[in-house]
Write a structure and sequence with these properties.
It contains 16 helices and eleven strands. With 374 residues, it is an alpha/beta fold. It has one domain: TIM Barrel.
Length: 374
Amino acid sequence: MSSHSLLRTRICELFSIEHPIVLAGMGGASTPELAAAVSNAGGLGVLGAAACGPTRLRAWIRKTRELTDKPFGVDTLLPASVRRQQQLSDAGDTDPDFSLDAHRAFAAEFMDQNGLVSAPSSDRETDDDVDLVLFSEPFFSAQMDVIIEERVPVYAAGLGNPGPWMDQLKANGTKVMAVVGAVRHAVQVASSGIDAVVAQGHDAGGHNSPVGTMALVPQVVDAMGDVPVLAAGGIADGRGVAAALMLGAAGVWIGSAFLASEEAGIHDFQKQALVDASEESTVVSRSLTGKPCRVLRSSWTAAWDKGELKPLPMPFQSMISDPVMSAAVNGEREDVYPGIAGQGIGMIKKVRPAAEIFADYVDGAQAALGRIAS
């Protein structure tokens, strides 16, 4: 058996792709240009649409279709914690812990101390999205309506369980996967009839698991039986792909390496921060979204480590952090917001086209599998 045939897995058949390499749906970074580049290279590009209102989401889906005739996916968040918090809010809960005033004052003081100037308010594409609070229950529902109406080839739940929408997604022929960080979460989403799961370990950038990738993946594989598993977290080259397959995964979900692509929707100063970073440059912090999220260390994460205030739960912490991060991006302040990435970033040496990064993954995996076979 050739190393090339070893790269043909059930994931390739499931998603109608050439190689079992899937772009992680990184919010804001996995743009139509990046998703299309990965799909055109033979993998599955996935739009990172977590923060896209329904108008922008529809535009992104249609733009991706203009850039590729290959399958692609859309990733959004469906966190149960937000639904629970929405229920508390609807019930008139006035828990003082959810007062935003002290946290807004903390953020304002941070901006003042760091010389940050408020960024111009971002223009919404149309008035359709203005009344939707980011990462709120109505926001998620509006996103899912668009995903169903547009009949996307693949849908990925970056957080939470897509079960409530499964019948409509399946009726459209949409393949559905979910990102999980524990065996029990994998079992929960599998019961809803999911097509694949992404086992994302502690090494990963963004929202991740307390369990390391190497330990998590084989345990999720064992629990899933016939449901294929994609491995995620710290897989920064082709050797990582080969290792994931050895652990029983049927493919990989790759994020950080593609952040350093020409097509990624992050700023040049953040791409340079990735190139300059080492394996020790990240920290898991709740200071951005309210959920544990692996990010590059910054003065913002340090301020929350030292402060008496604790980050608020999702979606409230985003209301506190978003104006600060917008100001940091506007001022190209790498010290405040260098970005979100996983522990494999020490292997990123330069910014390159996505197709070149993809080809290196394929070639490196084939070479590693060839060495094992021989």
